[in-house]
Amino acid sequence: MIKNTLLALALTAVFSANASAQTETKSESTSATNESSVKVSDMQKPTEKVKDIDDEITDARMRATLGSKSMWSFKSSLAYNGGSLKDPGATVRPAYRTGPDTEALATLSGNVGVNLRLNERDNLSFGTGITIVDPFHGDITKNAEDKTYYGNGKEVARYRVSTPYMGWSRGYKAFGAQMISSMTGSYYTADTTTALGYSYNLSYSQTILANFGTTKWNGGVSFSLSKDFYGNEVTNKGFKADMNSGKVNREEWLVGAYPFMQYSFTDRYSFRTVFGYGEFQRKEDTTGFKQVEPYQSVGLGISVTRDIYLYPNIQFTPKDIRDDRTNVALSTNINLF
User: Fold this and answer.
1) pLDDT tens sequence for the chain (337 residues)
2) Does residue 15 share a domain with residue 113?
């Protein structure tokens, strides 16, 4: 086994050996993957070969969330959070669930890093967050202008590499349902976040997906638990003044249950909707949890390959459906090698 491990590590030094994209047609019962000619499993004895996680996880989005089946690979989850349906290319993203004090700049952001496949079910990933602020306005080689409620028109860095993280995930099947369990620790380093006093975050999530007795409809629920920790001084003057007056406070706990449904048009395209009605937060120096304004996302799931999944969608609050408060977004899971 030690010999096999050393050989696997040697293979990772030459990414070009397994850089061909994995292409796979997905269905509920079968899967076929085109892989590079040199694989870790090819070097192992038949009794030592890693099992295929695709036998247990058949959902396109869940496969892409877990990452590539290679021992080492590039892993990313990126999202574009844009303006409203009324003005999709707007600089400021409307705070459709809360109020103007929490509005944000339009951004292309997410996590990029390296994924290590520990075994057929478990993955360890580590990397950093990246953000491109207001990518479609102004000179992208220069700083952006923060036109949000607390931004006051100040210049902010257009590109940010911040918030390193480490995470573990496990994909498996239990009680006839597909499941993913994951834990992540993140350390806040972005100026806009540390200026509010945030230090680091720990989170846990559990996704459960079951079929509805057909090959077209399925659905499930994702549970999440997140805890923010403070350790930095609040240096944002506007936010600090509102904190002192009791107008706002920092988030400490966030718990949520997010039911979702999917309908498969083809092996590649599916309708997807997420019901964010069961999200609760507790803020610093308070007791009890308060429900966050409900939201719903509706969009199209696109399985480009086994390891690339796109979800263009809109997000709105059912209590106040308006074109100027319905935001546009695109979330992606992209794995290479």
Assistant:
1) 333 443 343 333 333 333 333 333 333 333 333 333 444 444 434 433 447 899 999 999 999 999 999 999 999 999 999 988 988 888 888 777 765 556 788 899 999 999 999 999 999 999 999 999 998 888 888 998 888 877 777 888 899 999 999 999 999 999 999 999 999 999 999 888 899 999 999 999 999 999 887 778 999 999 999 999 998 889 988 888 988 888 888 999 999 999 999 999 999 999 999 999 999 999 988 889 999 989 999 999 999 999 999 999 999 999 888 888 899 999 999 999 9
2) no
Taking the C-alpha atoms of 119, 120, 125 and 130 in order, what is their torsion angle to the nearest 10 degrees? Answer: 160
Residue 113 lies in a domain: yes
Q: Could you tell me the pTM of the whole model?
A: 0.78
33: nearest Cα among 21, 17, 45, 49: 21
Determine, yes or no, domain membership for 118.
Answer: yes
What span, in angstroms and rounded, lies between the C-alpha atoms of 12 and 108? 29
Note the helical H segments in the chain: 2-12, 60-66, 191-194, 237-244
- Residues 45, 68, single domain; the answer is no
